[in-house]
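pasting for the record
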Amino acid sequence: MADNNQNQNQNQNRNGFNDGGQNKPGSGFSLTWLYIIIGIALLFITFYDTSVPTKEVSYANLQNYIWEGYVEKIVVVTNENLAEVSLVDDSVVISEILGSDAKKYTKKPQISSKIPSAEKLDDLVTAATTEKGYTIDVTYEERKDYMGTFLWSFGPILFFVILWIIMSRRMTGGGGIFSVGKSKAQVFDKGSNKMKITFKDVAGLAEAKQEVQEIVEFLKNPVKYTKLGGKIPKGALLVGPPGTGKTLLAKAVAGEANVPFFSLSGSDFVEMFVGVGASRVRDLFRQAKEKSPCIIFIDEIDAVGRARGKNPSFNANDERENTLNQLLTEMDGFGTNSGIIVLAATNRADILDKALLRAGRFDRQISVDLPDVHERKEIFEVHLRPIKLADGVDLDLMARQTPGFSGADIANVCNEAALIAARRNKEAVDKQDFLDAVDRIIGGLEKKNKITTAEEKRSIAIHEAGHASVSWLLEYANPLVKVTIVPRGKALGAAWYLPEERQLTTTEQMLDEMCALLGGRAAEQVVLGRVSTGALNDLERATKMAYSMVVYYGMSEKLKNISYYDSTQSDYSFTKPYSDKTSELIDSEIKSIVQGQFDRAVKIIKEHLSQHAELAELLVDKEVIFADDVTRIFGPRPWKTRMDELNEAEGNEGIEGNIDKTNETDE
């Protein structure tokens, strides 16, 4: 089914669209440089020695120099018991005392010595000057290391202050603790060259593109609408599955609109500090009012827009709810926000608060669905622009081969095909590369060297041939494309189909698809007389399908026209919408439906046992067989599918590609 491919969808990379408002040009002097300059200055002051170089001598030598008359001046540092001595200007004396190291010192050589006390040195100098008649200038002073005292007193405090500032900047995105409540939105001003994406880069999504184009046109030419009494919509919510192009549309709006564009994610409002989210909302709208008219884009708004009162944390003061309350007030509160349009994107609109979705806040909900076959062709054309293609690549065929693929999936197919072609040293990307890329994305990496015994290989072939046989003989089963027993990813084998893109599914179609799912296990039981764990994926999907038929769609015999599906139900509801007796009845109906289709599959296998055996042997021999091989064994299907009609209308001979993996032998 086409719905099965939705499980393979991949999210687009949104992080590149919003860098949190950091690293903006012209944002001014960064405090980081100030911290670096202060640190260098402190290191310079601490380690740079401005004192005069001196030679340290013993106190006994100092006594001799004083008695010999070599000393001219003495500075006594009383609090350190240190004597700094200036020698007489005599080369002989200097050479005798300093020796070969005289060149290392200043023109006025000095020596230093530790003294017992200032009083003993004073007595020595007095005795020498009295007996020898020398003139020695003696001064006394007390020195204090102010820098050392400062560092020891205030250094630890400064260390913790700087550490706190750095940590706060890390937690708040580099703006410091005082900017924690500031908005993190990235701003694209008029004429900005940052955003190169325009509406021509958005393929498909015709209706959604028209809606957002109208918003851009309103901002560019408001008179066209206001002269008839119309008012600009206050908000538009882009809703759709992951990877369908919601953020891409917003990028196109940023590239097309000639007004300031604020971009941020819903998670940017969430912070560990209380009240920060609401403060950032206020700051965002304050900036927007200053630059009105403008557009605000909030990606993944469900991060802050979740319905209030349904948080499983049971926190009485939930920060997310406070942020949502402030957002509701700013979007349509007592104040006016004229000229501000709020765009938002989410793939979980069902959990958003009802107050956020009411008219006056988000006036429009724009559905961005999975692309149909024509839109997929347009998306292929966009993503194939930079790729060098070989002759024979049919975009119509590629579009039909990828039902249920999102725009992100198609981009991944194109990129993977280019990588495969490069790995094979090709000059251009051809059709087979695209087919292998679809295989790689849906089924996983091929594992031809995976160890399997001959018995396991035959069992897998019988299982996959059972899928192929039953689906070929059922009117509403999906058209078969190929069957393989080559391991890929976690699957030991797979049957590949081309699901029809339909909007409604009947009971007969669901039953036929369920019967085809159970064809593998039925073949094991009929041919081998035993079953294996390889049907896990088949049983899981068949059971879910039967559950949906009974509980949601009212398609069972005993619970007709009753649905227990509740679109308003919370994700954290602990009650069932039906009684225990009804629950037993539901279990009974599910078992009855699944068992009925299994018995039906067993009957089909028994009626066509010889053809099934031939198909299984061919599968063991070739490992991969296509629809042509099944046609040769079973004959052509008597029912025409929508895809057959398309192939006949466009003159295509058939499809031998890898499409939708609907059956896996995966334990």
